[in-house]
């Protein structure tokens, strides 16, 4: 039997990046839907925005890791 294909570090980062981007988009949609409902959802919207910002930070860190440093 063939050994299972192991993902490289870069492949794992790219997969994680896609998952985080999808979660970010999902939160964006959830926030938009809650904002339409009115002021009763303000605390939930605030919490989701914080979560979305944390995801954006994770996405940025992974993108930085995947982007090679170029010495000028």
Describe the structure using short key phrases.
72 residues
> In angstroms, what is the radius of gyration?
17 Å
**Mean pLDDT metric:** 90
% residues in beta strands: under 5%
DSSP summary, beta strand count: 0
The outline comes out as: elongated
Number of helices: 2
Oligomer: single chain
Query: What class, by secondary structure content?
Result: mainly alpha
What would you note in describing this structure?
- 75% of the residues lie in helices and 0% in strands.
- It has 2 helices and no strands.
- It has helices at 9-37, 42-66.
- Helix 1 (9-37) runs antiparallel to helix 2 (42-66).
- The chain is elongated, with a radius of gyration of 17 Å.
- The mean pLDDT is 90.
Q: Short summary of the structure?
A:
With 72 residues, the chain is mainly alpha-helical. It has helices spanning 9-37, 42-66. Helix 1 (9-37) runs antiparallel to helix 2 (42-66).
What are the SSEs and their pairings?
Layout (H helix, E strand, L loop, with lengths): L8 H29 L4 H25 L6
